[in-house]
Amino acid sequence: MGRKNNEPNNSTLSNPLILIFAGFISCGIVYTFISAFVTSNRISSSSVSELGSSLASVQDTNNVNGCCRGIESLELWGAAVKWGSEFKFNTSRGCCEACKSMCTGKDGPCLCDTWVYCGNREACGSKFGECWLKKQKDSLAPERQGGVPPGEIVSWTSGLIFGKGEGIIRLETEYGALHIKLFPDCAPHSVAYIIELLALRHCAGCQFYRAESRGQSWDSEGNHIENAPFGPPYALIQGTLEVQGTPFKKLPMEDCPTLRRGSVAWVGSGPEFFISLANHAEWKHEYTVFGSVIPEDMHIAEKIAALPTVSDVWNNVNVTVLEKPVPLLLGRVKQSHED
After folding, report:
1. What range(s) does the PPIase cyclophilin-type domain occupy (predicted)?
2. pLDDT band at 298 (very low <50, low <70, confident <90, very high)
């Protein structure tokens, strides 16, 4: 889905070198587009409360796969709701699940959205097994330990938990906005990267450049039609979430569930990504899924998939590339008082 020619890939998601040049051509378009929007990373034109029941119907990869992952050598701060000196586990998963249990969505906002575990027996010493459960002022801008001396090992592992109405970002396009629920406990490194992008308050260079409809192979619910081919077209829109002028560090492979309609996943190690317009069980477990588009916004993805395209061949795979790339502005929705 975004592989450069110097990164061979035989999947249907490969990317040609020509897109690099298209990116330069579209640079002016990107900046023109950005100037038309508010540069703040808090987009207030919609709120969590306005998303209504859509959030409840998002397929929560966290619950389906029982993910409980964090980032090693990271200590997130925040107000403690459980003191680790009196709350210990043998594994980081136990700590994570303890935080999740305080974020069921049944009793209002999450009481815990951050877990911090000391799991390196040698480095932790008497703190080994400590599980600190915390609450951030802003879960999309978590506080972290600062001023760590060079060479010093951080013995903590930290993770985020987003409850209902939390961890939602917004991909703004000229055709409408795509609201995406992030999955930090399944793809913590991926979500950490998205949080870094939010802090930049712009996304110059971010865009969709490939669009393929569901064709005659998948129905409107994303179900594959019996005896139909699996493409082309491949039922997806593809783009990049790399800011021009900012070095990108490859992301590790994380949770790779079966792709569903609305799944948002990386191509390889990123920063190329795609939104699936159908259920792609045939792709097995090849792609890190870091979020899901709320169902009510999928018509925006379908609209982009229907834009004019030109045919191309990527590593012997027939694909369709947008005649005119669609710039993206990355932002967040406004939290309501109720949420």
Report:
1. 169-322
2. very high
The C-alpha atoms of residue 67 and residue 255 are separated, in whole angstroms, by 8
Encoding tokens for residue 282?
A: 């045939």
Q: What is the 3-state secondary structure (H, E, C) of 56-106?
A: HHCCCHHHHHCCCCCEECCCECCEEEECHHHCECCCHHHHHHHHHCCCCCC
Provide the whole-model pTM: 0.84
Q: What are the b/e assignments for 42-76, b being 16+ CB within 10 Å?
A: ebeeebbeebeeebeebbbbbeebebbbbbeebbb
- Rounded CA-CA distance 84/133 in Å is 7
Asked if residue 75 lies in contact with residue 313, where contact means CB atoms within 8 angstroms, the answer is no
Question: 293 and 206 in contact (C-beta within 8 Å)?
Answer: no
Length of the chain: 339
Contact 81, 111 (CB under 8 A): yes
Identity at 289, one-letter amino acid code? V
When the pLDDT of each residue in the chain is averaged and rounded to a whole number, the result is 83
